[in-house]
Amino acid sequence: MHQIHVIYGTDGRRMAKRLLEAAGAGSHFSPGMRVALKPNLVVAKPASSGATTHPEVVAGVIEFLQDLGLKNIEIMESSWVGEGTARAFKAAGYEQLSERYGVPLIDLKKVPVRAFEAGGETYQICKPVLEADALINLPVLKAHCQTLVTCALKNLKGCIPDGEKRRYHAAGLTEPIARLGSLVHPVFTVVDALCGDLTFEEGGNPVPMNRLIHGEDPVLVDAYGATLLGYDPDEIAYIPRAAAYGAGSMDLEGAEIRELNRGESGKMTPSGKVARLAAHVDARSACSACYGGLIHALNRLDEMGRLPRDLKVSIGQDFQNEQGGGLGIGHCCRGFARSVPSCPPSARAILEALLKEI
Ligand code: SF4
Q: Where's the DUF362 domain (predicted)?
């Protein structure tokens, strides 16, 4: 059975190490292997923007690998067209990371490529990605203005040259992303879902979700990630296409989701659109994992044009012994007239409850 492991918290380094230990990730490696780490550094912004992989998550992965005795580890990325990868490495704190662990940074805009044929098209992939003995995918779970969600499969677009990125966009992204998923094979994915963006891949409306996700199947990881942003996996066109091309399975019902711990309540100071959505929420000691899912669900409702001005929803641990009259989110609100079960519920489950509520 395919597995997904989830860990909640805010300490990305410790969480990543514990997650990899629980998932038995060490079985993929042997001494002398060359390991490539592929974060998402699409733009030159820190992780707090909601755009880029937090360097402490990468630090935890590096420590895990170095504890196994692996010495040949590299961080690879090609930022989006128009952004310098070196600038992105610097802005996101990867220069210090590189120095701290003695791990080099590889700018994939400056390397040779290899071509593959798939579906009657030629696909170019950066050689260092293909030459690594093991590729570890380290995406951010966040919204995307065209594909709606970006996570494991789409993060692999940073493994191709800029000319290919332009071609992917001209082709509408879905087909080439799905094909790329069948050509590049990370040994596993660790998703940084600590704080991804609400609406765009370049950040600006960060939503704390305070969790990391591990999975070996990138299609399954993306299917799971889609539900955390309020989507049915079938709504994210490249996910079923990638499954059709043999990149993985999107059978979430047949998968085992192992949560290693529970989330903790945290303080959120929303701004921009997140603040506007948060005005619909009565939050009292809510866990960020839960609150973030509610914000994504409210955003989905808003995008559908169906968010009532007067809608109010309750969430948080302080509601545990209350008998509220309206809709409450999560196990803590089980005493409410209507509640969304689970702890934390996915944004998809919250959205379904909101649609019934309005
Ligand atoms: S249901 Fe309660 S305890 Fe569980 S994640 Fe939500 S707020 Fe936290």
A: 35-226
